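User: I'm putting together notes for a lab meeting next week and I want to include a structural view of one of the chains we've been expressing. I don't have a solved structure, so I'd like a prediction I can at least talk through. The sequence is below, exactly as it appears in our construct file.
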Amino acid sequence: MSLNLISRRHFLGRSSGLAASALVGPNLLLRGQNGAGKRLRIATIGANGKGQSDTQGVTLDHDIVALVDVDSKRLEAAAKHREKHHLDSGKATGQAPKLYSDFRKMFDEMANEIDAVIVSTPDHTHYVAAMHAIKHGKHVCVQKPLCNYIGEVRDLHQAANKAGLTTQMGNQGRTQEGQRLAKEWIEQGAIGTLKEIRLWTNRPIWPQGPKAKRAAQAPSELNWDLWLSSEPSEPYFEFDLPPAAEGSKGKGNRFGNSVHPFAWRGWWQFGSGALGDMGCHIMDASFAILGQLIPERIDATSSPISEFCAPVWSELVYHMPAGRHPALKVSWHDGSKDGKPNKPEISPHMTSELARRAFDKASSGMMFIGTEGTVFEGEAYCSSPVIYNEERYTQVRLDMKAGKIKKTETRSVMPNNPQGEWAHHVVNGGKPSSNFDYSCPLTEFVLLGNLAVRAQQSVQWDKQGMKVSNSESANQFVSRPSYRDGWKA
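Assistant: Thanks for the context. Below is the predicted structure for the 489-residue chain, given as structure tokens.
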């Protein structure tokens, strides 16, 4: 078989096993026991939806002792799915987890029976749930984005480090081979000098844009007061999409006109829009490749927003300082604009019919544009990058085979399973791929885009002062305005 004809996924699959090794770090064995075969006692907060798949990543090797969800139907479904997954896998189900609607009550009643906590709730509850876990000394794995306010991200990071806990964010691309290959290629000159990065997503696929609330009856299975968690109390509501909302046609019917269980993503107080939902995936490889730098300025344009809702589309430019690479721009496009996917221009290196087809097909993706070529990935996680033009990609693969391009990045012990990787390091020591030292600055990088969108202007970011230096009014979006009594740990 010609090297040109080897599929990129076959190539990446073969190469992923060449350099897998555990991440090093302090030994965090629990209660002095030997790590071999150690089963953690894990609680999942936000048990259904993403929480269901997060639980699946650890339940066969560890004990799920509690499931928490504010929706009784979804809570029961999560418990049944865990049991079915064990039966389908031929593994004993073990003792059934205790079921709770309020994670605070869970900690009150059984904190001594829990070693670690997975948080998979809507974004606005990530911080308060994770902080309760940290204050109880529990290792934490939190879904992306870690929080939807930068102030919360910083606070969470500081608290977890002070407690000496093993932490993780659930951005699976960080555990995969492709992101590491892209970084190695670029650092070792495979595309010349890196000049620009272009990122995009088709999100939002849920309703966004200015929407009006209208009072409604909460579903009987939903505890709306607990769903709000630390947010100010307000009646349950549904919403109507404005008739002229650009790109919104049909989306309200697909996901319903309620924030629960999915469309909360478009509301600033509960979610973080398309950028917050997908940025911790799509911006992840860029953040790693650029040496975990924070931008100096962010420019933003978007469709109309409101006090409550994120836009239908946005376009951002992150101005990055020089570091491992020369100063450059990272652009972000999301949503639909003028009835078409809001995507950046294709790289000048992607001139072949094959390249253009790959770009046209990609609903989300990234282009790392260098002086001599482009690393392209047509999905969110950078799991299977390729290089254009095709002749250069062939040469890079030959250089890897000959050892001219080396594997310098530490590989994950559990590719594509951030929850399993986290649990492994809780037991055996070391740091997960997206531990808070990495994922907190990554989340800040992402949320700076939302800060600029909400400010509706370019913002200069003072990293040390954690503030916008060119607009005092923009600083109202750095930290959550308030917390309801009884929720902040």
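A couple of points you could mention at the meeting. Residues 436-455 form the longest helix (20 residues). The chain has 15 helices and 18 strands.

User: Perfect, that's what I needed.
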